[in-house]
Amino acid sequence: MNARAALDDPSFRLLGSIVVAALVLAGIILLFSKFVLHKDVSKLWRIYLGWLIMIPVVMAAVLLGRVATITLVSAIALLGFREFARATGLYRDWWMTGAVYLSIGGIFVLAVMPDPFNGRPGWFGMFRTLPVYAIALILAIPVLRNRTQGQLQAVALAMVGFVYVAWMFGHLTFLINSDRPYAYFVFLIVAVEINDIAAFCFGKLFGRRKLRDNVSPNKTWEGSLGALAVSMAFPWLAAPCFPHFGPLQLVLTGLIVGIGGQLGDLSISVIKRDINIKDTGRLIPGHGGILDRIDSLIYTAPLFLHMVNWYYGLYGVR
Fold first, then answer.
1. Euclidean distance between CA atoms 293 and 254, whole angstroms
2. How many angstroms separate the CA atoms of 97 and 290, rounded?
3. Closest by alpha carbon to 55, among 22, 84, 30?
4. Burial class (CB in 10 A: 0-12, 13-18, 19+), 208
5. Which of 98, 178, 269, 275 could lock 216 by a disulfide, CB 3.0 to 4.6 Å apart?
6. Are 122 and 77 a contacting pair, CB within 8 Å?
7. Residues 183, 245: Cα–Cα separation, whole Å
8. Geometric angle at alpha carbon 171, from 169 and 172, rounded to 5°
9. Is 235 within 8 Å of 254 (Cβ atoms)?
10. What is the rounded CA–CA span in Å between residue 71 and residue 64?
């Protein structure tokens, strides 16, 4: 991966064009709504500005190459776990949080290093077994400290923080290491965010019936079904990125993004409602925290990667 390879890659050019076109169209709609229709779009404008910050950061990392993109994904995983630890109170236990930070560092190292057995980028086999070692480390901490009071909660939070927030999200690093990084990694980022935006737009325009009022009061069945329809159609629009995909794989991709993305959003909402917070942070203007933005990717990244690996092999070899 490098700037020349990205710009020469038809998948990157197609997906990049879709992103730029969507940004321009959204900007025109917001300006028209504000200055012609005199609507209050201040909240939507903050969300739009958030996209204007995030998209160039991701695109810059992709253009800089594989290590830069893996570094960005690993840093986001680390910040996401930091938000989780602060929101749940786990951050008060420095031993537990330290063990998870160390394990997240392991994700970065395994993604960057070559596989010692075949020389391919990233040690995928060890990455898949990393939770075994991370959980063993987390379980050993109360024993080493000779402490029992409150340790079940701390151990459980540390496991969820590493496995769900960091390791599942870390699957993106091996989409970057795959034989089609622009098609797989860039597509999943774009498709998941389009799914989120579609759920928001369809919910605002047609939302009547609550989807799960105790989990996320603003989500509606109409928004959910609209997002699923868009996500099912998008892989066919982006089909030139996947000339090796058949109809079954395109349908599975749509289901993973359309259903998995929404389940990821709702799963983080369960955690937020349980600890009575609205957002996990305020780092991204208009969007909340890192977890608020990557919740759908956490769920979809491993599902998409293993679907690709099952049918075609992550490195194009099965």
1. 20
2. 18
3. 22
4. exposed
5. 269
6. no
7. 11
8. 80
9. yes
10. 11
What is the secondary structure of 44-100 as a DSSP string? HHHHHHHHHHHHHHHHHHHHH-HHHHHHHHHHHHHHHHHHHHHHHTGGG-HHHHHHH
Token pair 């076109």 is found at 21
Measure the CA–CA gap between 255 and 154, rounded to whole angstroms: 34
Q: Please report, to the nearest 10 degrees, the dihedral formed by the alpha carbons of residues 80, 69, 102, 171 taken in order.
A: 70
Reported as type and span, the H/E element at residue 216 is strand 216-220
Q: How many CB atoms neighbour CB 46 within 10 A?
A: 13
Two structure tokens written together for 301? 């990244």
Q: Which amino acid is at 31?
A: L
Residue 216 pairs in a beta bridge with 212
pLDDT digit string (tens) for the chain, length 318 residues: 777 888 888 888 898 888 888 888 888 888 888 788 777 778 788 888 888 888 889 989 999 999 999 999 999 999 999 999 999 999 999 999 999 999 999 999 999 999 999 889 999 999 999 999 999 999 999 999 998 888 999 999 999 999 999 999 999 999 999 999 998 999 999 999 899 888 888 888 888 888 888 888 888 999 999 999 999 999 999 888 888 999 999 999 999 999 999 999 999 999 888 888 877 777 777 778 888 889 999 999 999 999 999 999 988 766
Q: Residues of 236-262 as b/e, b for ≥16 C-beta within 10 angstroms?
A: eebeebbeebeeebbebbbbbbbbbbb
Query: Closest Cα to residue 104, out of 129, 122, 81?
Result: 81
Residues for the chain: how many in total? 318
